[in-house]
Amino acid sequence: MYKRTSAYICLAVFCMLATSCATKIAGLTHDPSFTYDTIVSSKIMVGGVASIVNNISATTTIAYSDILRSQFTKQRKELNVVSSRKLVSKLGRKKYDRLMSEHRETGALSSSSLGVVRSKFKGVRYVIFARIEKNETERNIKTRDIYETKKMPNGKKIKVKKGYDITYYSRRKASVSLYIYDLDMGKSVWGGSVNKTVSNSNLYQIRPGRYSRTRKYPDMPNTKQVLSRIFGGFAENLPKAPK
Fold first, then answer.
1. Domains of the chain, first to last
2. pLDDT tens-digit readout, 47-64
3. pLDDT value at position 17?
4. If DSSP states are collapsed to H, E and C, what string results for 8-53?
5. Number of other residues whose CB lies within 10 A of the CB of residue 198
């Protein structure tokens, strides 16, 4: 055990952990009519983002919807994606809130609700609605012993513990369902659920010989950060151009 004079060489590492593999969509449904050719030749509108985890304000709904649109256009630059702000403007706040309430409570939209949207947007074929179904945070600590190799007088090499690393993690885990509706057909043609975790970490390298420093957890990732990853994951799975 190290004395109180041990060194806490603090490397404040704020890193966003992400997997390099493609995002998996759980329970993916895909109507054969929803193809690369149809989505690049049609307008797609963001309907909105609801949450069953907590009540979110109208301002927050729009902000999350803007993230959805931003990620779809970032991942798939060939798409023509219309902001949800236009839907709010056309329907009016009361009708829009009723639409979002239906989506929040049932996770789907009725054909009659889709008909209302279609009547206001003749040039739009697809509309996207998402629902936050989990949004959790956690903090934990991981410790790892650090060794170095030393050569003994007899020539033998041994491993000697020289200290240890402590990493403080702050994580946010979220799950979102997202469905794209075909307004011409009056039904969902593509969608499912995506889970993502975003993590910040502080790494402290504990070594003997110096004074300690205070250790602390990093800031918790915010909801917008994890939603950005999730919506980007949906977008990367959209139908691609045939080879």
1. 7-236 (3.40.50)
2. 999 999 999 999 999 999
3. 40
4. EEEECCCCCCCCCCCCCCEEEEECCCCCHHHHHCCEEEEEEEEECC
5. 23
